[in-house]
Amino acid sequence: MKEFAQLFCKRFCVPNSEAFLELFTEDAIYIDSLYGEYKGKEAIKKFHTRCHEEAKKYVFVPKNIISEGSEIAFEWEFEFTLTTPFAKGKRIKVHGSSFMSIDNGKICSYREYSDSVSILLKGNVPEDKIIHFYRKKYQERK
Fold first, then answer.
1. DSSP 40
2. Handedness of CA 135, 137, 138, 142 (dihedral sign)
3. Any idea of the CA torsion for 128, 98, 84, 137, to the nearest 10 degrees?
C-alpha cells in the first residue's frame, strides 16, 4: 500500500487527468481540504484540471505511510508555484495528512486535512476574498 500512496502523489503532480483518474473507482469521493468535496470521476477530473490551471511545478511527498487492510493514511509535504492573479509565481509549501479507502485496487474515498486558510494567506489572497470563498463553500453544502 505504501507504493499506492506514492503513485497517487506522483500522478497528482502531472497535468494528465486521465492518468490520475485511473486510480479511482467510478463513484469515488474526493475531499480536498481547500476546494471541498467531489463525487465521481468527472468531478474529480475537473478538480484536477483546475489545480493544474492555478498552479505549476507540484512536488507532493508522502511521509509516514501506514495501512491496514484497504485503508491508507499518510502525512505529506506539498509544494507548488501559484499562477493565480494574487500570487502569480509565488512558491507555497503546505503540510497535511490524507486518508484513502481502496476497493479492488482503486480509490473509492480520499480525504485530506491541512490548514487551508494559511494556503490562501500565503497565496496573497485578500482577507475579504477568503471570507467570501469560505462563505460560498459552506453555503453550497446546505
1. S
2. positive
3. -40
C-beta atoms surrounding 102 within 10 Å: 19
Range of the domain at 98: 2-140
Question: What radius of gyration do the chain's Cα atoms show?
Answer: 15
Q: What's the domain count of the chain?
A: 1
Phi-psi category of residue 69: left, alpha or beta, with phi > 0 → left and psi -120 to 50 → alpha: left
Q: What is the mean pLDDT of residues 28-34?
A: 94
Note the pTM of the prediction, 2 decimals: 0.88
CA distance 29 to 111: 8
User: What is d(CA 133, CA 78) in angstroms, rounded to the nearest whole number?
Assistant: 22
The grid coordinates of residue 115 equal: 490548514
Q: Compute the distance between CA of residue 138 and CA of residue 42 in angstroms, rounded to an integer.
A: 22
